[in-house]
Amino acid sequence: MTGQPLIDPFGRHITYLRVSVTDRCDFRCIYCMAETMTFLPRQDLLTLEEIDRLASAFVAKGVRKLRLTGGEPLVRRNIMWLVERLSRHLGGGLGELTLTTNGSQLALYAEALAACGVARINVSLDTLDASKFRVITRGGDLAQVLRGIEAASRAGLKIKINTVALRGVNEDEIEDLIRWAHGSGFDLTLIETMPMGEIGADRTEQYLPLSLVRAQLGQHFTLDEVAYNSGGPARYVTVRETGGRLGFITPMTHNFCESCNRVRVTCTGTLYMCLGQEDAADLRSPLRASHDDALLHAAIAAAIARKPKGHDFVIDRGERPSVGRPMSMTGG
Ligand code: SAM
Ligand code: SF4
Fold first, then answer.
1. Relative to the alpha carbon of 100, which ligand is closest?
2. For strand 158-164 and strand 262-265, is the pairing parallel, antiparallel, or unpaired?
3. Closest CA to 162 of 178, 176, 175
4. Helices 142-154 and 106-115: crossing angle, nearest 10°?
5. Which ligand 1 atom sits nearest the alpha carbon of residue 330?
6. Pairing of strands 245-249, 235-239
7. Strands (DSSP E) along the chain, which ranges?
8. Quick one: which of 246, 243, 210 has its CA closest to 228?
9. Residues 218-272: pLDDT tens digits?
């Protein structure tokens, strides 16, 4: 490790970096972005070489887990070059290299990802109904995603399905999704919608508290609390009837900040110290100012010293989003 480890003012060790490699996406999920989303001009993006340097600086400062996300990480051109480059840290300082994907390109990349040492991936999937899928993603092809998931499974990748619980959209399907995921050997995590970015709709219409979902699931399943902790915000149970693991990410009904070990960098090199706050640090300038990483290391340390205690998410009818940027900027 180079220099001091990253410890924030509340004594939390920062060991997890999420890197949004692009803000672009081939889907336009209704809770994530507006239909008319405009993307950044390509010249504003860090190059893949710059992303490698930036992420490697974090690894040098004690980051043990890297997650590539987006937008859709697998639509960034030459993405496998970056995955391969970053994989050189595995077995060194880095314990895990992973990604979160919508699965649309997985059939193309699953084997290459596994060959680079990626062992686990998260795939987002909110429904198993093809027409509902087309509506939620505004045009996505469910069959293509399911083919991607199969390819990933065949390549030996461990898969976790992430499902955003949406009132009146997939709330009647959650039990089926759990049975399908667990029957296929995948963990599944349910996520509450978070008030991020303008989506061209009122979020109170979509918001479904997971406390409610959990109570409903309790009528059909026996949910056993487990001590398992992925180091993240999810709380886990095992479902006795399926034998599978089910996670709940409840930023709105349960504050998960006290054990936060992560920060997020966007594809323009902006570092967000908290998903639910606006404060950010520009890392692109120190990155481009010199080939030596000293300035970059100093900027990272200064930013971590400002990491806030927690988020201020609120969902109220007619309210503007708590955080103006969309989830696709930091990748969740
Ligand atoms: N495109 C990839 C995908 O969908 O997996 C990676 C980026 S996406 C922004 C990461 C995760 O954030 C997905 O699981 C998505 O469902 C979730 N997400 C997006 N907007 C959200 C919101 N407003 N509230 C909660 N989760 C959200
Ligand atoms: Fe794209 Fe992922 Fe956002 Fe859906 S959730 S629009 S797949 S970035």
1. 1
2. unpaired
3. 178
4. 20
5. 9
6. antiparallel
7. 16-20, 65-69, 96-101, 120-124, 158-164, 187-191, 223-225, 235-239, 245-249, 262-265, 270-272, 280-282
8. 246
9. 999 999 999 877 667 788 999 999 999 999 988 766 566 788 899 999 999 999 9
Domains of the chain: 16-330 (3.20.20.70)
Indicate the top mutation candidate among 191, 205, 250, 272 to test ligand 1's pocket, ranked by most ligand atoms within 8 A of CB.
Answer: 191
Nearest ligand for residue 137 CA: 2
In whole angstroms, how large is the CA radius of gyration of the chain? 19
Q: Enumerate residues lining ligand 1, CB below 6 A.
A: 25, 31-32, 69-70, 72, 100-102, 124, 162, 164, 191, 193-194, 196, 327-328, 331-332
- In the chain, what percentage of residues exceed pLDDT 90? 74
Q: Residue 115 is encoded by which pair of tokens?
A: 């060959």
Q: What residues form DSSP beta bridges with 159?
A: 121
Phi-psi region of 197 (alpha: psi -120 to 50; beta: other; left: phi over 0): left
Instruction: Judge whether 254 and 236 are in contact, CB under 8 Å.
Output: no
CA distance 282 to 185: 41
Tell me the pairing of strands 65-69 and 223-225.
unpaired
Residue type, 47: T
Dist. CA 285 → ligand 1 center (Å): 28
Instruction: Confirm if 131 and 110 have CB atoms less than 8 A apart.
Output: no
Name the pLDDT band for 298 (thresholds 50, 70, 90). Answer: very high
What spacing in Å lies between the alpha carbon of 239 and ligand 1's midpoint? 24
Higher pLDDT, 306 or 332: 306
